[in-house]
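Standup, Tuesday
Yesterday: got the pipeline producing structure tokens again.
Today: sanity-check two examples.
Blockers: none.

Example 1:
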Amino acid sequence: MKKYFATLAMVMLTAAGFAQSEKLEPEFIGQVVVVNADSTTTLLQKEPTKIKTGSTKFGMIPLPGTGLLDKSKVNMTVKGKESQTKLKSGRLTFIVKAGKNDMDPKSVFGVFQFEVKKKARQFVLAEGSFLSGIQSTTNFNTVPTQVKKYGAESYLVVIENAQPGQYAFTTTDFSYVATFGVE
């Protein structure tokens, strides 16, 4: 009888642990939550992005050779100077729901830091000029992270020493990014 109760207790503890991990996972694929100090989670807001191009306009000056000085950039832009989700600097833990977690995490999502300009946050996708050529960014993993599988469909992402700034997670849909700010 003691073996029966011991086995039953082990099954219940295992089920409780699994249920806890289920509670922390986001509900939908592509969502990202931050794990708070009290083991609750907060869903990161998804904000729409726009792809914008800009130029220094040197090519419009009607002098020979000025077109060689013209530089262009392509930016992923999000409105507003900061995210509504504000976190303290230091160690941050997130859970990203991916649907399946058997792929290389770098091919599923990326974590990057924005550059704040005027009334928007920007991430440079490409830049180029006649003299220097074109340099494009295909790497959205510009922030160092530690990643592990979490549950059956998610990844646990840890940023060890998050510095102040504006950040985003991007998944397969680049038209929206999950944003957060670090103070």
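Example 2:
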Amino acid sequence: MPHSESAERSDERRMNSATASAHPSPSSHVSHERPIVFVVDDDISVRESLESLIRLAGWQPQTFGSAQEFLSRPRVFVPSCLVLDISLPDLDGLELQKRIAPVRTDMPIIFITGRPDVSMTVRAMKAGAVEFLIKPYGDEVLLGAIQQAIESSHVALRREAGLRSIRSSYASLTPRERQVMASVVRGLLNKQIGADLGISEITVKAHRAQVMRKMKADSVPDLVNMAARLNPPLESQTGRGSLDEL
């Protein structure tokens, strides 16, 4: 084996050892507490009524009198949904939705209002609201909407946890392993990868085995699917050169 390959393998063994304990499992970030139903409404009587209803249904209620008060709360990785009054004193419900919907896909929004407006309803639903309820509404109607929203939140959190796991595994790869992974995803054979990277076929096989182990991939198609979920997609990255961190 050429000296450069031997030195590279030695460096990567040290890096593998160092990264083995540096990336905690993403599942550790997901709480197993009861689902939370957030309520944002400036009417204290509505907040108190919904708090009792939600608690009786078995969920955790957390109520806020304003959008700003809600925004100041740190994010938790618990299945959740937001019951949101569309008319608020500082930041209205539609504006709050605009701020949080793109970054909180795991928290479906249910709008409630005492003053129905078709244009507001259309805007809210186009922006991703799962329900738009007009006061007065029946308790069962709201509870049904909350149940569906919580189920959607469960799915979104599992999907997000899976993506974090893939990113964590990818971060544990050495630069050479990332190059080999990119080439494998592109469909190159070991011999072609070796020629492209200037290393022996035996060394390619060793790197490839490390990639499969670290990425927890059962097969090449499995690895391709993982690569497709990375951002930017791995397929667009070339074999030569250092691959950037995601």
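Quick observation on example 2: The CA atoms of residues 175 and 242 lie 6 Å apart. The chain has two domains: 3-22+172-236, 31-160.
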